[in-house]
Amino acid sequence: MYTPGPVNLLGLNAGLNGQARTSLGFFVGVGLAMLTLFLLFGWAGAAWMRGDILAVVGAVGCGYILYLAIKIARSTIELGAARQAPRVLQFRDGLIMQLCNPKAMVATLPIVTLQFPAAGIHGVSLLFWSLGLAVLAFGAPGSYALMGTVVGHRIANPWLLKGFSLAMAALLVWVAITIGYEHVWLPLAGEGFMVRS
């Protein structure tokens, strides 16, 4: 949850732009999305989660990540003008992004289908463990936002802030491309190859 990914990069960007506090809804959305995935997969199981469904969800997630990257890139400041912060991340952004993040699904599936049952976690205890992990998921982009806030206070040069925003947008595009390749293209190309064989 704490490795650099689209959600954490957006948290870092929010901190750099002085929006850590106003982006709390985004962090709550991320936590709620993870809670939803843990409970959904824990209670319903992973039986209905086929590769083609994961590929479609991944494609939607990649599109949303690219949308947010474009928003961040467009919101960079104009030199010589007053600093304009990018659009504040909302609860909806965190919820949608994390629900459509294939890496979130790939992380939750083994936990709830292998680790939880092996540890005897089911029923009500599944709810408590999922809540705990959701709190950790809330903290991941929050910790990146705090790091961004610390770094952002030390940067006074608008060129550097513009460079950071453009770098965050470029990293989000890279993440969308890698997720699209790994979780959309390869599974679909593999199925197409298997059908033709």
From TrEMBL:
TM region(s), chain numbering: 20-41, 53-70, 126-147, 159-181
Membrane topology: Multi-pass membrane protein
Superkingdom in the source lineage: Bacteria
Alphabetical keyword list: Cell membrane, Membrane, Transmembrane, Transmembrane helix
Compartments where found: Cell membrane
Record's protein name: LysE family transporter
Annotated organism of origin: Billgrantia antri
